[in-house]
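Continuing from yesterday's entry. The apo prediction looked reasonable, so today I'm repeating it with zinc ion included to see how the binding region is handled. Same sequence as before; SMILES copied from the compound registry.
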Amino acid sequence: MMPSLAAHIALLKSQAEAGVDFRPRAGALCPACGQTAKITATRPWDGDTRIRYHRCQTPGCILASLNQSIKSVQVDR
Ligand SMILES: [Zn+2]
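Holo prediction written out below.
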């Protein structure tokens, strides 16, 4: 049985808020559409981790249409 759309959206939002991996070359990928999400804010390094915030700008993407902020975590300099 397919999960409901509401449950699917809730899962994507929770992934965006929990944080995705940030990779120096690829950047952060939107958990919904898999495209590179645009950086909107970059925090300073805190120890060995750096937090960034992104927004997906892919047309038709659920998280883009929700204007959902996507958090990313970079763990290696
Ligand atoms: Zn997206």
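Comparison notes:
- The helical segments are 5-18, 62-65.
- The CA atoms of residues 23 and 36 lie 10 Å apart.
Will overlay with the apo model tomorrow.
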